Every structure is written in C-alpha cells, then in structure tokens.
Amino acid sequence: MAILVAAFELVGEVGYAGLTVEGIANRAGCGKQTIYRWWPSKAHVLLEALAVKADLYVTNADHGSYTDDVRAFLGDTFRLSRQQRVVDILRFLMAEAQINEEFGELFRSAFLQRRRDALQVVLDRARTRGDLPPRPAASTILDIVFGTLWYRLLATRQPTGDDLVEDLTATLTQAAQPRADIAIDMGDQQ
Amino acid sequence: MAILVAAFELVGEVGYAGLTVEGIANRAGCGKQTIYRWWPSKAHVLLEALAVKADLYVTNADHGSYTDDVRAFLGDTFRLSRQQRVVDILRFLMAEAQINEEFGELFRSAFLQRRRDALQVVLDRARTRGDLPPRPAASTILDIVFGTLWYRLLATRQPTGDDLVEDLTATLTQAAQPRADIAIDMGDQQ
Amino acid sequence: MAILVAAFELVGEVGYAGLTVEGIANRAGCGKQTIYRWWPSKAHVLLEALAVKADLYVTNADHGSYTDDVRAFLGDTFRLSRQQRVVDILRFLMAEAQINEEFGELFRSAFLQRRRDALQVVLDRARTRGDLPPRPAASTILDIVFGTLWYRLLATRQPTGDDLVEDLTATLTQAAQPRADIAIDMGDQQ
Amino acid sequence: MAILVAAFELVGEVGYAGLTVEGIANRAGCGKQTIYRWWPSKAHVLLEALAVKADLYVTNADHGSYTDDVRAFLGDTFRLSRQQRVVDILRFLMAEAQINEEFGELFRSAFLQRRRDALQVVLDRARTRGDLPPRPAASTILDIVFGTLWYRLLATRQPTGDDLVEDLTATLTQAAQPRADIAIDMGDQQ
DNA sequence: AGCTAAACGAGACGGTACGTCCTGTCTTCGT
DNA sequence: ACGAAGACAGGACGTACCGTCTCGTTTAGCT
C-alpha cells in the first residue's frame, strides 16, 4: 500500500513530530480522507507500516536446551533492533502509546503482548523439559528480557550487541547450572 | 513556582496530549511568554515540575552487603513508582524524549543518567568490598534494573511490588553466593 | 458572505483598532484560516465588505452642461459620505493604506483611481462639448474635488453638505461663465 | 531629545507599522518606561519629533495682494512636502488620527487647525484689504488648499509641484480679477 | 455497453494550539 | 533618586494540522 510506504519513508525523513497525515497523503498521492477511512491516527498507520515493511519474525524453535532457546530468541530479537528505521518507529509507537491511551491499549495487546507470548512458549517448553531455573519467576524473565531491550532502545540508545545477548542468557539461566564451568566460560564470553 | 504547580496539576487532569502551554499559563495566571522565557516546551516544564513536586530521592547508603544494598535501592526506586501522578509524568517525559530529540538528550543526561549513577555507586562499593558477582556485567545490571522498571511503567503497566524486588535482587546477586572464587575472576572481565 | 457582514458590523462596534481577524471569525462563525485563505488582512476584508454592503454607485450621466454634470457628481458623492458607517470604513482604509504599502497600492488602484476615472468621464465629455473652462487643469480638478472630500472626512470631520457642493461647483465652473449673474446667484447659495 | 531623534530615524527605516516603543527605547538607549512617562503612544512621540526635527514654518507675510499672499503660502507649504521623511510621518500621523480617536483630536487641534489658522490670517487680511474674491467661501478655500495637499500626499502620492501652486492660486483668485463688484457682495456671504 | 455506487483526489471548512511579538505596567538594581 | 533593564500579564498575530465535510472523477461490478 502506497500509504504505508509513504508513512514508513516519511517518518525516516522528518521524524515522528514532523510526520502528519497531510504529509503522508501528499507523499502517497491520496486524499487525507482515504487515510482516515482506514486508520484512526498516524500511529496506527505506522504500526501497520511496520508490520508490512519490517520482517518482525522471531523464532522460538526448540534448540534442545533452555539456554540455547533463550540465546536464540535474544539473538533474533536484538538483531531486529539493528535496523535503525525499525527501531525509530518502535520508539515512536511506544511514545505514542504513553500519550494516546486508546492507541496504547492496541499497541500493548497487538504488539507487546505478542512478543511476550513468543518468549513464553520458550519458557513453557523449558518447564516441560525440566531445565527452567526456579528463579527468577517466568513473568520476571519476560520483564527482564523485554525491559532490557526497550530500555536500550528508549533510554541509553546503546546498540544491542552479542555480548549483551550472552550476558543476559547467562544471567537468566545460571541458576540452572550452579557449576564451576561457569567461571571457565566467562573468559570467552566477554 | 505557580507554573510548575499548574503544570503538575493539569497533566493529571487532562493528560499529556491535552496539556498545553496556554492551559498552564491560564492555570498559573501568567502569560505564555513567561513560560517560553524559561522553558522551551511543556516537557521541560514538566521535567522541572517533577523535580520540585516529587521527592525523587533514592538512597544508596551502605547496608553492609551487595545484596542488601541492591534490595534497598530497588525498594526505594520501586516505591516511588507507586505515585501514579509521578509515574504518569515519567511516562510522558520518556515519550517526549523519543519524539523530540533535543528534549531526549536533556532527559537522558539530566534524569536517566543520574539514576544510573546512583546505582553505579552501589556496584562500585560492592566491587571494592569484594562481593560483586562476576556476572552480569555492571552495565548489564544497570540495564536490567532500570529496564525492568521502565518496561513495567511503559509497557505492562503492572504495579512494581515487593515480590519483583525480591526476584530481581535474587537474580542479580545469586551468583555471588554459591562460590567465592567466581568473584576473584571478575576483575578482568569488567 | 457572513465574513463580510461580520467585519462590517464589528468595525462599527469596536472601531478599526479593536477589529481583529479573530473577532471577525468568531462573529462569522468560521475559522481564522478561512479568512486568511481569501484576504491577506482585515483591511482587505473591509474593502470588500464595503463594496458588498455599501452602494457606492455614483452616476456620471449627461445632464446637458458641465456645471450640471459636476453638481450632480458632487451631490452623489457627498451624499454617500453621510452614511457614517461607510465614512468610518473609508477613513480606516485610507489610514491602513498609509501604513501598509501593499494595501495602499491596492486601495489606490482599486478604489481611489476608479473614483477619479468616473469624474474624468465628466470632464472628457465637457471638453468634447466645449464647455470645460480652460482652468484649472483636469488633474487639478480631480485633486480639488476628491481632496476636499477626503479632507473633510479625515481632517475636519465636517459634514459634507449641499452648500459645499454649490460652492465647489461654482469654483470649478466659474471661469466658463464670466458673467454678472454670478453675483446674483451668490446670495441664494450660502 | 535622543528619543525624538531615534523615533524620527527609525520610522524612516522600518516604517510606521514596524515602529515600536521598544525599538525607539533601544535606539535611544533608554527604558520603555521613560517613553511612556512622557508620551502616551508612538504617534505622540512622532508628532513631537516632527516638530523638533522638521522646520514646519510657513510664512503668511503680507505680499501686497491676495494673489501673491496665496501663491507664497502655497509655495511654502508645498515645498515642505518635498521632504520625504516629513511627508511620510505626516501620512502616518494622519493615519493614526483615523484609528486612534484620542490622538485624532490632538492631531486636529494641535496640528491641522494651526495650519488652517495660518491661512485664515491671509484671508482675513485680504478681506480687510478688499481683494478677497466673493467665492469660494473662506472655509471652502481652506478645505480646497489643504484638501488638495493632503489628497496628493495620501492618495495620489504625486509630487506637489509649482504648476499645481499656480493652478490652485489662479483658481482661488480668478474671481477677484474679472470684476470688482463681486467683492462688495462678499461681506454678507461669509 | 451502460448504470450505479463505492472509493477516490482534492481541498475548503470550523477549530485548536502553536510560538512570536508587542503592549503598557511593575520590579529590580546599579549609579 | 533616578533611570536602564527587563520580567510580567495579556492578547493578537499568522501558521500548521487536526478531523470533517463536500465536491466532482475514476473505477469497478452488475445489469
């Protein structure tokens, strides 16, 4: 859809504050009414544009162990956050979600919750498999993983590199492996 | 300052989207120019109003051990986040920081970084004392703590209760208990 | 157009200094942008409102002689200037024309010059007919007629009565009738 | 006074619309309050600046005959109107007089009426001397002279040259030459 | 092939807030 | 004590978008 492409491109050029429905319509060569007919706000357009333009797919395939599952999930997730345009849009949508309550609910249920659900599958599998550490609680793990990711996007703007993946994976899985080899692994990891 | 009080009250009544410089001026009984003379945007007003109205003090006093220090810091921090008005303003400021690059830089340096610095003091003391676990890395700890907090504020809107404090404390400090030799290796890694 | 009516009425109530685009918009029940879309300033609105609301028609029909033509033209013109609302607007527009160069050019070409042209027709006809006095020059006649009118509007604020019409008519036409009956006419005239 | 000089210079640089009390204060190196202490508005400042900066003197000395007196008066007056800065300020003041009723009264009584009075002296002398034409009436003569002058300043913006002086002088005095008996009747008429 | 009707581009509209400018008053501070 | 400096409440400016609302004009799909 030309409108989604226009929104996706424009937000990269003028930022979220500079993005207007009028601007999207002009770029897309359509009337404003056509946009309002299908989306209630520019944030909704952007949310759909993100889904169309960006491959947001993150696997939660079984890698045999909880540790490997988590490492793979984090790697996939954090890899996505290296596409600057995508990251910017995610930041803008999270911002809008704070300001516009109606959009916030949509964003949480249609986007954020889906991410949590994907990781939840990994945790459920680990519990079934029996290698889920007793601590932290599953909901805390979800908060830590996505919290750390979002915090880097929103607050520190640091790149989310492989070292963080390893560090997080180790932190979340160490209690399951209270053995001496931890210290040995450490050298390589950093 | 009447302007800060007005902004603080108004944002609670009409939300951030409904907050206008004109509205603040009317409530404060001043002209718009007086606001623009001192702050470049409503977000800047709110940031200062937060500092004036809300007691954002979080201690990082020495409680004798890394575990107790972390528990106390998290308890203080999360307690703050039970003041709904304060939480809302924090959410709005974080949102604005995504949209307005200039404000974003101020918010990160004048607010977010100060919070990190406070926790960093606790970590530094633990390293000196010798009870800092080898993992995760100090910067990762900061990301996890504040990431989890902000994620709950922005994304899940769950209350930040004592159980989460305990769970996080345990996760961040558990590696220190099992075996003392891990700590010995840590010096290189950080 | 509701905007023109609103402007015409408002200027009578609050004067030109008190007239604002915002006020016109409120009275007309429209947005400010709608006014700015069609007129560059409140003066332009008023100029058009004048044309719509006031019947500015002045005849220059042939009355058989230069003297009668001039008397008729002056009578028509001065009669107009007894509508106070119209006079006020004319004064305000002439004032604005001094202050705003761009409006000044419009006012001169679209209003003042048209008045001159109408009288010029009378003079041309007299020249063809052969009863135009040799003096004063045509352009001086125009200056005298409109100068006197405008001076009364702007400076003395005296009513422009029939006596002035007669006096001016006589002054401008006397050279064509260098006869004794002038003295006889004088008595009636004052 | 530095304020008057500043106002006189500034109005030539930025026009009347661009002239502000603040600007005058800055240029004059004084505070705004000092200006408001002595003059109620920028127009009042300008009116006084005009009197100080421009030599507005017009003679009404006795040249022996009504015709010569009128010619001299017109010549003096019109000569003044070749100083562009002075003309501009006169135009602006006349404009302000239309818009600001309070200033209008001052301008009429303190400036316009004084000009009329000066010419009235010439007319009174002519009546005494006996060479005042019966027509037009004295007040009409005043209207014609100043009306024509102001009309050229405000409306046509034509230069006021010597030819106009001659044309006007002739028009206003011609009736006096043809026949002396006209003057005899005049006494009643005025 | 012609007809109907939905969706479209275009853009004017009533409205809100913006950030700037200037007003005329009031306060501070240095000489 | 005076006056420059400038903060202040107030209010209009002209602009930018908002979301709504006609307008004709395509563009189908259905007769």
TrEMBL record, chains A, B, C, D:
Keywords: DNA-binding, Transcription, Transcription regulation. The keyword Chaperone does not apply. GO terms for molecular function: DNA-binding transcription factor activity; transcription cis-regulatory region binding. Residues 20-39 bind DNA. Residues 1-57 form the HTH tetR-type domain. PANTHER family: HTH-TYPE TRANSCRIPTIONAL REGULATOR RUTR, TETR-FAMILY TRANSCRIPTIONAL REGULATOR. This is TetR family transcriptional regulator. It comes from Streptomyces alanosinicus.
